[in-house]
Amino acid sequence: MPETFFIADLHLGYKNIINYGRNFDTIEEHDQCLIDLWNKTVRAQDTTDLLGDAVMNRRCLPLLKNLNGKKILVAGNHDAFKATELLECFDDVRGVAVFSAHSFVATHIPVHPQCLDRWKYNVHGHLHRDNITKPVFGIGNVINDKYICVSAEQVNYTPLALPLLLEKMK
C-alpha cells in the first residue's frame, strides 16, 4: 500500500548549508546522504510532500530525479524556478497542501497563528534549528502544540511517514 511522507529544506547543492549545523564535510557527501536516506525510506509507489527549498540553483534540479516515488513540491522561498523546470522533477507543485481528513496544512514557512483556526496543525519547514522551537515527539520541533517542523535536520534527513506524524499529533 502506498505511503505518504514529509520532509523540507533539502537544500541540495547549497555548499553553505553544511556551515549551518549539518555535519557533512562536503556538499557532495550531504547530497548523497539525503538521496540515500530518501531512497531507503520511500518506495516507487509512495508520495513525498517536499515542503520547500529543494535545491538552491538550477544546475542541481536534476538531482531530484534520483529520488524515489511521486514528489509534490510545496514551494519554498528558494524554489524560484519556472514551473516548467520544476515540473520536470516534481509530479505537482503547490503553494500549500491541505490534509483536511487529518486536520492539518503543510507549508514551507509556518502560517500565521490566526490562520490555524481551520486546522489543528501546521506541518512546515523553513526554520531548520531555530532557537524558538523546542523538541517534541523526537520527530521535529514545534513552536507550540500546533506547529511541527520537518526540516531535514529535524527528521534526521529522512522523510517522515504520515502514520508516524499522525500518531505523534495525538
Shape: globular
Helix content: 10-25%
Task: Give the strand order, joined by hyphens, for the main sheet.
Answer: 4-3-2-1-11
Instruction: Show unreliable segments.
Output: 131-142
Radius of gyration: 15 Å
Biggest sheet layout: 5 strands, mixed
Number of strands: 11
The residue-averaged pLDDT reads 89
Taking the alpha carbons of the first and last residues, their distance comes to 23 Å
Structural write-up:
The protein is α/β, with parallel strands linked by helices. Helices cover 16% and strands 21% of the residues. It is built from three helices and eleven strands, in the order βαββαββββββββα. The protein has helices at 27-41, 83-86, 162-169, and strands at residues 4-7, 47-50, 70-74, 92-94, 97-99, 104-106, 121-124, 134-135, 141-142, 147-149, 160-161. The strands form three sheets. Strands 4-3-2-1-11 form a five-stranded mixed β-sheet. A four-stranded mixed β-sheet has the order 5-6-7-10, with no helix packed on it. Strands 8-9 form a two-stranded antiparallel sheet. Strand 5 (97-99) and strand 6 form a beta hairpin. The longest helix is centred in the first third of the chain and has 15 residues, at 27-41. It starts with a strand and ends with a helix. 38% of the residues are buried.
